[in-house]
Amino acid sequence: MNMETVETENTTVQSDADQVEILGLEEFRKKEPGICSIRHIDKVISKPEFCKASNFRGLVYGTFVIPSKKNLQISHNIFAFCLTPDKLYFIDEGSKVRKKVRAMEEEYDDEIRTPLVFLLDFMEYLIREDLYVLQGYEKTLSQLAERMNAGTVADTGKDFMYMRSELNALYTYYEQLSNMAQTMEQVVVQSGDETAQTLLSLYIQRVQHLAQMTHTLKESLTQVLDMKQAKLSERQNDLVNLLTIVTSIFTPLTLITGWFGMNFVNMHLLKEPWGYTSVIVFCVILTLAEILVIRNWKIFRKQ
Asked: What are the TM regions of this chain, as residue ranges (predicted)?
């Protein structure tokens, strides 16, 4: 893409064909007062909340709120755009859009055909590395699952919860991009530009693939969390069974100990010389009998 850029004090970037321009919000209001006089357009581009696109009287305008791949829940790249029949405006108070445009220029060799084609190229450029990001999540999920099964990490639950929040953020992002593409589809069809139609079709397919892949990762994460909960419940059941067995064995012994510990005058075996020994033998036999009953009847054994 051969687009010479000129940087001015007003953070403006223009192509040699004067088709693409990057402005701050106030600069855009001064340059296009007619567009900004439409209240809902000015409201949308001045307060970006999520990725969206709208079509109004031949104008396509909207916002991008792109989660930063380094911190999906906190950091976002936020800017707006406005597409007229003969020019594409990016409204950005910083320099992130300019950097992305320059990076795209260095990578693409084709010249700008129309502002619409440039916008579609730019939208595709924004998600081109996302597949590798999702593959990284898939690898991390596998590693966490292995560590959980091995029992080498105690706080995997926190890692899983954090990953689920990030995947939810990504899935929402791709759903918003899909809605944007559907809004722009009517504009692209009306333009009659075959290149734009091809680009938009490929973009929709790619966004849907990313959304489906994210959804699959969410389901896999849910399955791993269910497995983790099942293992935790199994360990808790084992502990309860152990405590129940110990209680079942020692409750009769506690009763016998308490009974003879009262030292009633007329209690049997209390004054017999062999009484103490016989009680010990009886307790041992009783304990062994309880253990045999538990083993043979499979009491408290996991099904």
From this structure: 239-262, 274-294
Q: What pLDDT is attached to residue 261?
A: 67
Query: Distance between CA 141 and CA 243 in Å, rounded?
Result: 35
Tens-place pLDDT, residues 69-99: 777 766 678 899 999 888 899 998 888 888 8
Report the alpha-carbon distance of residue 44 to residue 34 in Å, rounded.
15
C-alpha distance across the termini of the chain, in Å: 67
> b/e for 16-53, b at 16 or more Cβ within 10 A?
ebebbbbbebebbbeebeebbeeeebbebbeebebbbb
pLDDT in tens, 96-113: 888 888 888 777 766 667
Q: What is the pLDDT of residue 184?
A: 87
> How many structural domains are present in the chain?
2
Residue 255, domain extent: 242-296
Q: Which amino acid is at 293?
A: V
Residue where one domain finishes, among candidates 86, 108, 130:
108
Tokens of 221: 């994460």
Summarised one tens digit per residue, pLDDT across range 138-192 is 888 888 777 777 766 555 667 778 888 888 989 999 999 999 998 888 888 877 7
The answer to the question of residue 79 being in a domain is: yes
Structural domain includes residue 37: yes
Look at the pTM and tell me if it is higher than 0.90: no
Distance between CA atoms of residues 67 and 211, nearest Å:
14
